[in-house]
Amino acid sequence: MSQPVYKVVVVGMGKRGMHHATTFHANPRFEVVGICDIDTARLQSAAAQLGNPVTSTDAAELLAKTKPDLFCLTTMPNIRYSMIKLAVEAGVKLVAYEKPMALSLREARQIMELVRQAGVKTVVSHQHRYGAHYQKVKEIIASGAIGRVHTVYGHATGWMLHMMTHLIDYMRWYNDNAEAEWVMAQASGRGKLTDNHPSPDYIAGVIHFANGVRGIVECGAGAPDVPEVDYWWRKARIGAQGTEGFAEVLTGGGWRAVTKNGSMQGPGTMDYNLDMPPYIEDMARWLDDDSAVHPCNGEDAYKGFEIMMAMVRSVVERGQVALPLPDGPPEIEELAKVLPDKPVLLSMPENRKEYPA
Ligand SMILES: NC(=O)c1ccc[n+]([C@@H]2O[C@H](COP(=O)([O-])OP(=O)(O)OC[C@H]3O[C@@H](n4cnc5c(N)ncnc54)[C@H](O)[C@@H]3O)[C@@H](O)[C@H]2O)c1
Questions:
Q1: Which domain holds residue 159?
Q2: In terms of Cα–Cα distance, which of 196, 72, 195 is closest to 125?
Q3: How many domains is the chain partitioned into structurally?
Q4: CA–CA separation, 89 vs 62, rounded Å?
Protein backbone atom coordinates (compact mmCIF):
# COMPACT_ATOMS: atom_id res chain seq x y z
CA MET A 1 0.00 0.00 0.00
CA SER A 2 1.44 3.38 -0.92
CA GLN A 3 2.05 5.81 1.93
CA PRO A 4 0.61 9.33 1.92
CA VAL A 5 2.81 12.20 0.76
CA TYR A 6 2.49 15.26 3.00
CA LYS A 7 2.49 18.75 1.52
CA VAL A 8 4.91 21.17 3.21
CA VAL A 9 5.28 24.95 3.31
CA VAL A 10 8.50 26.43 4.74
CA VAL A 11 8.63 30.06 5.94
CA GLY A 12 12.04 31.71 6.45
CA MET A 13 14.59 30.54 3.89
CA GLY A 14 17.73 31.33 5.90
CA LYS A 15 20.22 28.83 7.24
CA ARG A 16 17.71 26.70 9.14
CA GLY A 17 14.97 27.10 6.57
CA MET A 18 17.27 25.60 3.95
CA HIS A 19 18.24 22.73 6.27
CA HIS A 20 14.56 21.92 6.71
CA ALA A 21 13.43 22.52 3.14
CA THR A 22 16.22 20.50 1.51
CA THR A 23 15.61 17.61 3.93
CA PHE A 24 11.85 17.62 3.25
CA HIS A 25 12.60 17.83 -0.50
CA ALA A 26 14.90 14.81 -0.32
CA ASN A 27 12.33 12.70 1.56
CA PRO A 28 9.70 10.96 -0.64
CA ARG A 29 7.15 11.20 2.19
CA PHE A 30 7.01 14.98 1.69
CA GLU A 31 6.48 17.45 -1.11
CA VAL A 32 7.64 21.04 -0.63
CA VAL A 33 4.71 22.84 -2.24
CA GLY A 34 5.57 26.38 -1.16
CA ILE A 35 8.31 28.54 0.34
CA CYS A 36 8.21 32.04 1.79
CA ASP A 37 10.72 34.73 2.66
CA ILE A 38 10.58 38.52 2.69
CA ASP A 39 13.99 38.52 0.95
CA THR A 40 13.09 37.82 -2.71
CA ALA A 41 16.66 37.05 -3.85
CA ARG A 42 16.94 34.42 -1.12
CA LEU A 43 13.53 33.06 -2.09
CA GLN A 44 14.43 32.65 -5.77
CA SER A 45 17.75 30.99 -5.02
CA ALA A 46 16.01 28.56 -2.61
CA ALA A 47 13.27 27.76 -5.14
CA ALA A 48 15.85 26.70 -7.72
CA GLN A 49 17.22 24.13 -5.25
CA LEU A 50 13.80 22.79 -4.26
CA GLY A 51 12.16 21.88 -7.57
CA ASN A 52 10.61 25.35 -8.02
CA PRO A 53 7.68 25.26 -5.57
CA VAL A 54 5.23 28.17 -5.29
CA THR A 55 7.02 31.21 -3.81
CA SER A 56 5.63 34.15 -1.88
CA THR A 57 6.73 36.92 0.43
CA ASP A 58 3.42 36.55 2.27
CA ALA A 59 2.81 33.43 4.37
CA ALA A 60 -0.98 33.86 4.54
CA GLU A 61 -1.26 34.06 0.75
CA LEU A 62 0.99 31.02 0.35
CA LEU A 63 -1.03 28.96 2.84
CA ALA A 64 -4.28 29.81 1.02
CA LYS A 65 -2.76 28.88 -2.33
CA THR A 66 -1.03 25.62 -1.36
CA LYS A 67 -3.11 24.19 1.55
CA PRO A 68 -0.22 22.27 3.16
CA ASP A 69 -0.42 19.47 5.73
CA LEU A 70 2.75 20.64 7.45
CA PHE A 71 3.85 24.20 8.17
CA CYS A 72 7.54 24.74 8.95
CA LEU A 73 8.55 28.06 10.55
CA THR A 74 12.25 28.92 10.65
CA THR A 75 12.33 32.70 11.11
CA MET A 76 14.05 34.48 13.99
CA PRO A 77 12.28 34.10 17.36
CA ASN A 78 10.44 37.45 17.10
CA ILE A 79 7.92 35.77 14.75
CA ARG A 80 6.14 32.78 16.24
CA TYR A 81 2.53 33.10 17.48
CA SER A 82 1.23 35.22 14.58
CA MET A 83 2.58 32.78 11.96
CA ILE A 84 1.46 29.66 13.81
CA LYS A 85 -2.04 31.16 14.10
CA LEU A 86 -2.15 31.65 10.32
CA ALA A 87 -1.13 28.04 9.80
CA VAL A 88 -3.65 26.65 12.29
CA GLU A 89 -6.41 28.72 10.67
CA ALA A 90 -5.36 27.34 7.29
CA GLY A 91 -5.97 23.81 8.60
CA VAL A 92 -2.45 22.34 8.82
CA LYS A 93 -1.97 19.06 10.71
CA LEU A 94 1.53 19.69 12.04
CA VAL A 95 3.60 22.80 12.76
CA ALA A 96 7.38 22.28 12.92
CA TYR A 97 9.20 25.32 14.21
CA GLU A 98 12.52 26.53 15.44
CA LYS A 99 13.66 27.00 18.98
CA PRO A 100 13.27 29.08 21.03
CA MET A 101 9.53 28.46 20.78
CA ALA A 102 8.70 32.05 21.85
CA LEU A 103 10.14 35.16 23.49
CA SER A 104 8.03 34.87 26.67
CA LEU A 105 6.07 32.27 28.60
CA ARG A 106 2.85 34.12 27.75
CA GLU A 107 3.51 33.71 24.03
CA ALA A 108 4.54 30.05 24.43
CA ARG A 109 1.33 29.39 26.35
CA GLN A 110 -0.78 31.14 23.70
CA ILE A 111 0.81 28.91 21.07
CA MET A 112 0.13 25.75 23.07
CA GLU A 113 -3.49 26.73 23.78
CA LEU A 114 -4.04 27.44 20.10
CA VAL A 115 -2.62 24.15 18.84
CA ARG A 116 -4.17 22.02 21.59
CA GLN A 117 -7.62 23.41 20.87
CA ALA A 118 -7.22 22.84 17.14
CA GLY A 119 -5.67 19.37 17.58
CA VAL A 120 -2.56 20.40 15.64
CA LYS A 121 0.70 18.55 16.37
CA THR A 122 3.85 20.59 16.99
CA VAL A 123 7.54 19.79 16.80
CA VAL A 124 10.33 22.10 18.00
CA SER A 125 13.88 21.83 16.59
CA HIS A 126 15.78 20.27 19.47
CA GLN A 127 17.20 17.87 16.91
CA HIS A 128 20.68 17.49 18.47
CA ARG A 129 19.26 14.49 20.33
CA TYR A 130 19.42 12.54 17.06
CA GLY A 131 23.22 12.59 17.26
CA ALA A 132 24.65 9.09 17.84
CA HIS A 133 26.74 10.47 20.75
CA TYR A 134 23.63 11.98 22.40
CA GLN A 135 21.80 8.66 21.96
CA LYS A 136 24.73 6.68 23.39
CA VAL A 137 24.63 8.72 26.61
CA LYS A 138 20.88 8.13 26.91
CA GLU A 139 21.41 4.39 26.37
CA ILE A 140 24.08 4.20 29.11
CA ILE A 141 21.95 6.13 31.62
CA ALA A 142 18.82 4.09 30.82
CA SER A 143 20.76 0.81 31.19
CA GLY A 144 21.42 1.59 34.87
CA ALA A 145 25.19 1.45 34.34
CA ILE A 146 25.77 4.70 36.25
CA GLY A 147 23.49 3.62 39.11
CA ARG A 148 20.78 5.87 40.47
CA VAL A 149 20.90 9.24 38.70
CA HIS A 150 21.04 12.09 41.21
CA THR A 151 22.24 14.99 39.01
CA VAL A 152 21.77 16.10 35.40
CA TYR A 153 23.75 19.02 34.04
CA GLY A 154 24.27 21.10 30.92
CA HIS A 155 26.33 24.11 29.94
CA ALA A 156 27.02 26.01 26.71
CA THR A 157 28.98 29.14 25.83
CA GLY A 158 26.16 30.29 23.50
CA TRP A 159 23.72 32.66 25.19
CA MET A 160 20.38 31.76 26.73
CA LEU A 161 17.79 32.10 23.97
CA HIS A 162 20.07 30.32 21.54
CA MET A 163 21.17 27.40 23.68
CA MET A 164 19.31 26.97 26.92
CA THR A 165 16.24 25.13 25.66
CA HIS A 166 18.56 22.72 23.84
CA LEU A 167 20.36 22.00 27.12
CA ILE A 168 17.21 21.65 29.21
CA ASP A 169 15.52 19.47 26.61
CA TYR A 170 18.37 16.95 26.70
CA MET A 171 18.74 17.16 30.50
CA ARG A 172 15.02 16.36 30.83
CA TRP A 173 15.44 13.45 28.41
CA TYR A 174 18.37 12.07 30.43
CA ASN A 175 16.12 12.40 33.51
CA ASP A 176 13.15 10.54 31.97
CA ASN A 177 11.26 13.82 31.42
CA ALA A 178 10.57 14.24 35.14
CA GLU A 179 8.53 17.30 36.09
CA ALA A 180 10.41 20.30 37.49
CA GLU A 181 9.08 21.56 40.84
CA TRP A 182 11.18 24.69 41.35
CA VAL A 183 14.20 26.56 40.03
CA MET A 184 16.58 29.20 41.33
CA ALA A 185 18.95 31.23 39.13
CA GLN A 186 21.16 34.29 38.83
CA ALA A 187 22.19 36.26 35.72
CA SER A 188 24.69 38.87 34.67
CA GLY A 189 25.54 41.17 31.75
CA ARG A 190 23.24 43.35 29.62
CA GLY A 191 25.19 43.03 26.34
CA LYS A 192 22.86 40.47 24.73
CA LEU A 193 19.55 41.98 25.84
CA THR A 194 19.24 43.75 22.47
CA ASP A 195 20.34 40.73 20.42
CA ASN A 196 17.87 38.97 18.07
CA HIS A 197 17.92 36.22 20.74
CA PRO A 198 17.57 38.63 23.70
CA SER A 199 19.25 37.15 26.77
CA PRO A 200 21.40 37.99 29.76
CA ASP A 201 25.08 37.49 28.84
CA TYR A 202 25.27 34.73 31.41
CA ILE A 203 22.70 32.79 33.42
CA ALA A 204 23.21 29.89 35.82
CA GLY A 205 20.75 28.03 37.95
CA VAL A 206 19.52 24.90 39.60
CA ILE A 207 16.38 22.88 38.86
CA HIS A 208 14.69 20.65 41.40
CA PHE A 209 12.95 17.75 39.65
CA ALA A 210 10.03 15.87 41.25
CA ASN A 211 12.02 12.60 41.21
CA GLY A 212 14.64 14.19 43.49
CA VAL A 213 17.19 14.69 40.72
CA ARG A 214 19.04 18.03 40.73
CA GLY A 215 19.58 19.90 37.44
CA ILE A 216 22.44 22.36 37.03
CA VAL A 217 22.46 24.55 33.93
CA GLU A 218 24.61 27.45 32.67
CA CYS A 219 24.51 29.43 29.45
CA GLY A 220 26.63 32.22 27.99
CA ALA A 221 29.85 34.06 28.68
CA GLY A 222 30.43 32.72 32.18
CA ALA A 223 29.87 29.07 31.26
CA PRO A 224 33.01 26.93 31.30
CA ASP A 225 35.02 26.16 28.20
CA VAL A 226 34.82 22.70 26.65
CA PRO A 227 38.45 22.54 25.51
CA GLU A 228 37.93 19.23 23.66
CA VAL A 229 35.71 21.10 21.16
CA ASP A 230 37.07 23.75 18.76
CA TYR A 231 33.88 25.15 17.26
CA TRP A 232 32.55 27.83 19.63
CA TRP A 233 28.81 27.05 19.18
CA ARG A 234 29.39 23.37 19.96
CA LYS A 235 31.19 23.96 23.25
CA ALA A 236 28.34 22.35 25.19
CA ARG A 237 28.40 19.48 27.68
CA ILE A 238 25.28 17.64 28.85
CA GLY A 239 25.19 14.62 31.10
CA ALA A 240 24.11 12.77 34.20
CA GLN A 241 25.87 11.69 37.38
CA GLY A 242 24.71 8.64 39.27
CA THR A 243 25.70 6.64 42.32
CA GLU A 244 28.10 4.54 40.23
CA GLY A 245 29.48 6.93 37.61
CA PHE A 246 28.59 9.47 34.97
CA ALA A 247 27.84 9.70 31.24
CA GLU A 248 28.07 12.90 29.20
CA VAL A 249 27.97 14.19 25.66
CA LEU A 250 30.05 17.06 24.23
CA THR A 251 28.01 18.58 21.41
CA GLY A 252 31.05 18.86 19.16
CA GLY A 253 33.28 16.20 20.76
CA GLY A 254 31.82 12.74 21.28
CA TRP A 255 30.75 11.09 24.52
CA ARG A 256 32.41 9.63 27.58
CA ALA A 257 31.35 7.68 30.64
CA VAL A 258 32.61 6.05 33.80
CA THR A 259 30.26 3.25 34.80
CA LYS A 260 30.22 0.18 36.97
CA ASN A 261 31.67 -1.59 33.91
CA GLY A 262 34.67 0.75 33.62
CA SER A 263 35.45 3.90 31.70
CA MET A 264 34.59 4.29 28.02
CA GLN A 265 34.29 6.94 25.32
CA GLY A 266 33.33 7.33 21.69
CA PRO A 267 33.13 9.81 18.81
CA GLY A 268 30.31 11.99 17.46
CA THR A 269 29.60 15.60 16.67
CA MET A 270 26.48 17.64 16.05
CA ASP A 271 25.94 17.39 12.28
CA TYR A 272 22.86 18.76 10.52
CA ASN A 273 23.37 16.30 7.64
CA LEU A 274 22.98 13.38 10.04
CA ASP A 275 20.43 14.81 12.47
CA MET A 276 17.91 16.40 10.09
CA PRO A 277 16.82 13.34 8.02
CA PRO A 278 15.58 11.20 10.96
CA TYR A 279 14.14 14.30 12.65
CA ILE A 280 12.06 14.98 9.52
CA GLU A 281 11.22 11.29 8.95
CA ASP A 282 9.72 11.09 12.47
CA MET A 283 7.27 13.85 11.46
CA ALA A 284 5.87 11.58 8.71
CA ARG A 285 5.61 8.77 11.25
CA TRP A 286 3.66 10.94 13.67
CA LEU A 287 1.37 12.20 10.89
CA ASP A 288 0.73 8.55 9.91
CA ASP A 289 0.12 7.37 13.48
CA ASP A 290 -1.02 9.51 16.43
CA SER A 291 0.71 7.19 18.88
CA ALA A 292 4.16 7.67 17.24
CA VAL A 293 4.73 10.93 19.12
CA HIS A 294 7.74 12.87 17.86
CA PRO A 295 10.72 12.94 20.29
CA CYS A 296 10.87 16.74 19.82
CA ASN A 297 7.13 17.26 20.40
CA GLY A 298 5.89 20.68 21.45
CA GLU A 299 4.51 19.56 24.83
CA ASP A 300 7.99 18.53 25.98
CA ALA A 301 9.54 21.62 24.42
CA TYR A 302 7.06 23.75 26.37
CA LYS A 303 8.16 22.13 29.65
CA GLY A 304 11.77 23.03 28.88
CA PHE A 305 10.84 26.56 27.84
CA GLU A 306 8.86 27.02 31.07
CA ILE A 307 11.90 25.97 33.13
CA MET A 308 14.04 28.55 31.30
CA MET A 309 11.48 31.33 31.85
CA ALA A 310 11.17 30.30 35.52
CA MET A 311 14.93 30.90 35.82
CA VAL A 312 14.55 34.40 34.40
CA ARG A 313 11.72 35.06 36.86
CA SER A 314 13.96 33.81 39.68
CA VAL A 315 16.57 36.42 38.71
CA VAL A 316 13.89 39.15 38.66
CA GLU A 317 11.96 38.09 41.78
CA ARG A 318 14.95 36.59 43.67
CA GLY A 319 14.80 33.21 45.33
CA GLN A 320 13.09 29.98 44.38
CA VAL A 321 10.32 29.95 41.77
CA ALA A 322 7.74 27.14 41.76
CA LEU A 323 6.44 25.46 38.61
CA PRO A 324 4.06 25.38 36.84
CA LEU A 325 4.41 29.14 36.37
CA PRO A 326 1.43 31.44 36.65
CA ASP A 327 0.93 34.01 33.90
CA GLY A 328 3.20 37.04 34.15
CA PRO A 329 4.65 39.90 32.13
CA PRO A 330 7.28 39.09 29.45
CA GLU A 331 10.21 37.73 31.43
CA ILE A 332 13.08 39.22 29.43
CA GLU A 333 11.53 42.70 29.48
CA GLU A 334 11.24 42.40 33.26
CA LEU A 335 14.84 41.22 33.44
CA ALA A 336 15.98 44.28 31.47
CA LYS A 337 14.48 46.50 34.16
CA VAL A 338 16.56 45.00 36.97
CA LEU A 339 19.80 43.59 35.55
CA PRO A 340 22.71 45.75 36.80
CA ASP A 341 24.88 47.52 34.23
CA LYS A 342 28.07 45.62 35.08
CA PRO A 343 30.24 43.89 32.47
CA VAL A 344 29.97 40.13 32.47
CA LEU A 345 33.03 38.25 33.72
CA LEU A 346 34.23 35.99 30.92
CA SER A 347 35.19 32.37 31.29
CA MET A 348 37.28 31.92 28.15
CA PRO A 349 39.28 34.23 25.86
CA GLU A 350 37.27 33.31 22.76
CA ASN A 351 34.20 34.83 24.40
CA ARG A 352 35.73 38.26 23.77
CA LYS A 353 34.72 37.99 20.11
CA GLU A 354 31.09 37.42 21.09
CA TYR A 355 30.95 39.58 24.23
CA PRO A 356 32.70 42.90 23.57
CA ALA A 357 33.82 44.62 26.78
N1 LIG B 1 17.96 23.89 15.95
C2 LIG B 1 19.17 24.32 15.67
O3 LIG B 1 20.13 23.57 15.71
C4 LIG B 1 19.36 25.76 15.27
C5 LIG B 1 20.58 26.20 14.76
C6 LIG B 1 20.69 27.53 14.36
C7 LIG B 1 19.60 28.39 14.49
N8 LIG B 1 18.42 27.92 15.01
C9 LIG B 1 17.23 28.79 15.14
O10 LIG B 1 16.64 28.94 13.85
C11 LIG B 1 15.98 30.20 13.76
C12 LIG B 1 16.40 30.88 12.47
O13 LIG B 1 17.78 31.01 12.45
P14 LIG B 1 18.60 31.19 11.07
O15 LIG B 1 20.03 31.20 11.44
O16 LIG B 1 18.11 30.22 10.05
O17 LIG B 1 18.14 32.68 10.66
P18 LIG B 1 18.29 33.41 9.25
O19 LIG B 1 18.36 34.87 9.54
O20 LIG B 1 19.38 32.77 8.44
O21 LIG B 1 16.89 33.09 8.51
C22 LIG B 1 15.68 33.68 8.89
C23 LIG B 1 14.94 33.99 7.58
O24 LIG B 1 13.61 34.42 7.91
C25 LIG B 1 13.24 35.42 6.96
N26 LIG B 1 12.10 36.18 7.47
C27 LIG B 1 12.09 37.15 8.41
N28 LIG B 1 10.84 37.63 8.56
C29 LIG B 1 10.03 36.93 7.70
C30 LIG B 1 8.64 36.96 7.42
N31 LIG B 1 7.81 37.81 8.04
N32 LIG B 1 8.17 36.09 6.48
C33 LIG B 1 8.99 35.25 5.84
N34 LIG B 1 10.32 35.18 6.08
C35 LIG B 1 10.84 36.01 7.01
C36 LIG B 1 14.52 36.22 6.80
O37 LIG B 1 14.51 37.02 5.62
C38 LIG B 1 15.57 35.11 6.76
O39 LIG B 1 15.82 34.66 5.43
C40 LIG B 1 16.31 30.95 15.05
O41 LIG B 1 15.22 30.88 15.93
C42 LIG B 1 17.50 30.18 15.63
O43 LIG B 1 17.56 30.20 17.04
C44 LIG B 1 18.29 26.63 15.38
A1: 131-271+305-338
A2: 72
A3: 2
A4: 13
Secondary structure letter of residue 197 according to DSSP: S
- Atom from ligand 1 closest to the CA of residue 12: 24
Q: Which of 59, 62, 71, 73 is nearest to 17 (CA)?
A: 73
H or E stretch covering 142:
helix 132-142
* Ligand 1 site, CB within 6 A: 11-17, 36-39, 42, 59, 74-77, 79, 98-99, 125, 127, 162, 197
**pLDDT (tens digit, 9 = 90+) per residue, 170-211?**
999 999 999 999 999 999 999 999 999 999 999 999 999 999
pLDDT at 122: 99
Assess whether 264 and 145 both reside in one domain. yes
Q: The whole model's pTM is what?
A: 0.97
16 and 102 together in one domain: yes
Inter-axis angle of helices 81-89 and 59-66, nearest 10:
20
- The verdict on 35 and 74 lying in the same domain is yes
Ligand 1 pocket, mutate which of 18, 37, 197 (most atoms under 8 A from CB): 37
Residue 120 lies in a domain: yes
Alpha-carbon gap, residue 192 to 221, rounded angstroms? 10
Length of the chain: 357
